[in-house]
Amino acid sequence: MAGLRLNLSVLWWLPRGLIFGLMAFFIFGPLFNMALWTVTEKWYFPHALPLEYGFSAWARVFAPRGGALQSLGNSLTVAVLTVIVSLAFAIPAGYALARLKLPLRSLILLAFLIPQAFPNLTVYVNVARLFYEIHLNGTIAGVVLVHVSHGLVYAVWIATAAFSAIDVELEQAARSLGAGAMRTFRDITLPLAAPGLMASAIFVFLESLDEFTGSYFVGAPDVNMLPLLLYTAGSGGNYQVASITALLLLVPSLIFMLIVERFLKADVLSRVGR
Amino acid sequence: MSGSGYLELNGIASRYGATQVLKDINLSIRAGEFVALLGSSGCGKTTLLRTLAGFNAPSSGSVHIGARDITHLPPDKRGMALVFQSYALWPHMTVDENIAYGLKLKGVPRADIAAKVSAMQSLLGLQGLGGRKPQALSGGQRQRVALGRALVIDPEILLLDEPLSNLDARIRLTVRHELRALQQRLGITAIHVTHDREEAMVMADRIVILDAGRIAQQGRPEEVYNRPASPFVAAFMGAENLLKLDGFVVGDRFVLSPGAVHAAGGVPLDGRSLASGAVEARFRPEAARILATLDTATPEDGMTFRGEVLAVTYPGGHWRHVVRTGAHEILADAPRACQPGERVAVHVGADALFLFNLAEPASASSLPASRA
């Protein structure tokens, strides 16, 4: 009996192993393929693995004329500026939405979704046309503006949730002991909301780093961003450059997602959008 | 009111939207006095406390400390410290930091802060816990940190919003006395909100009973306990037994007419404004004495009625009987148990029998007969 049961449990591992294996393949297969391409010198059909390995593609990407460093710089500058602008707006807005019993509160929250409600292409083509007229097209400021309109949803929604997760009595306790409103916000509210605000900053940062359509219509060709470089390299068949660019985009995403996972507590998440 | 008090509330009214939470509250509190605001939930006691603390703006009326009008001052400019029912300790600060915060706000030098914080901790028995976060404390320890945080800034007035209600019953009893002793030692004026009658009785110099946003009665614990001014106060202070009787005023006595189940009786008026006619009589179970037989000479003072024991329970210390008398069922305590079905006489002494005129309109009945 015992032997039979052992056999059955071994059999049960077969489909499970198969499913896990397939999942791993679909997730890590493309990643592994990408990693391989970044160190490939020569790889063509029908060979399963690269024929020659090397780092010449890295040298090309990071050469002064490769444009990658400039794109990376642009992307990081835009992402950081987007985070600053978004949070500068989201902290007061989120606090007001969380604390004051504003009428139409959920409607206001919903309004931040509107940029996402329409097809991106149509919106950004028109934004580009408008920006062209007021000389914002092809500037960092223009791209930041587009990214902020996109990132504000995350920033405001998560900031609102972070602030409403803080018990009002914690603030009132400080007021009662003699702290003014601003002092209370600085000493009590902000530190308690910091993990949630951190998470919202990271979301905005990643969104900005990944954003393509807006960057393309508003930024290119004067302001080149990393996703644009990836697009050009990929469509030109230069898989080495495309893979290296993708890796540059992937690494901060992975690191930040791990941080977000640590920072975003369940009590904040449960209040998102409410 | 006299206007000689330290903390003066004049005609405070408060409303949430259409509902009137507080109506014309007048209260005068002496420096160093411990006042309990007592009432059931929804009576407005917490609203009154939050109005004092500055978190609710009254819709009319004024609050003065001495000659200073603080009605419209923000909470941080009032010199009061509020201890919350939830304690509201800051989870991102340690016990030390929680207690020190108020001193830091005042700009007290760092060395003095450390000395005061550790003095407060030894006063409250919190030694060795200074480095912990509030999450790592027990309920009783959190309560003491919340208290220490408020006391360390040496507030003019300490406001307590049911700070004992989240504690174990056993800890609660000792904390009552600790808190009271501390308040007397430091000479702080304290206002304590509670729904616990015994807590208010044990701790306070004066009890203010609130009913539906009004002061139903105020006075020393023994005053509100022994001389309730209205049926509401009598019931709230434990006189839950209710009988409908008839009587008339003769000189300085109120004589109760004999009825189907009760003999004649009477109580001295003793300053009470009772009119001849129907009255409701209220008394506590422990004020009733069960007499074994009906033949016992019925005392002149108070009232005696006949009844039948329906049930007996033992809540501890005495036996509690459910006695049916006429159409009413009442509770009566006795040192010995009577059997269900037994016919008994129940006597209530004059000083424990609270009489109120039935015809009295509800609004007049809530006016206190004697003010402290």
From TrEMBL, chain A:
Q: How does it sit in the membrane?
A: Multi-pass membrane protein
Q: Which SUPFAM superfamilies match?
A: MetI-like
Where is it mostly found? membrane
Every ABC transmembrane type-1 domain range? 72-260
Source organism superkingdom: Bacteria
Please name the InterPro entries in this protein's record: MetI-like (IPR000515), MetI-like_sf (IPR035906)
Q: Does the keyword RNA-binding feature in the UniProt annotation?
A: no
- CDD domains in the record, alphabetically? TM_PBP2 (cd06261)
Q: Which family does it belong to?
A: Belongs to the binding-protein-dependent transport system permease family.
Output this protein's name.
Answer: ABC transporter permease subunit
UniProtKB/TrEMBL annotation, chain B:
From which residue to which does any coiled coil extend? none
Q: Which Gene3D superfamilies match?
A: P-loop containing nucleotide triphosphate hydrolases
Subcellular localization(s) per the UniProt record = Cell inner membrane
Annotated ranges, domain ABC transporter: 7-237
- Family recorded in the similarity comment: Belongs to the ABC transporter superfamily.
> What Gene Ontology molecular function terms does this protein carry?
ABC-type transporter activity; ATP binding; ATP hydrolysis activity
GO terms for CC? Answer: ATP-binding cassette (ABC) transporter complex
Q: How does the record classify its membrane topology?
A: Peripheral membrane protein
Q: Which Pfam families match?
A: ABC_tran, TOBE_2
> Record's SUPFAM superfamilies?
MOP-like (SSF50331), P-loop containing nucleoside triphosphate hydrolases (SSF52540)
Protein name from the UniProt record: ABC transporter ATP-binding protein
Q: Which domain of life is it from?
A: Bacteria
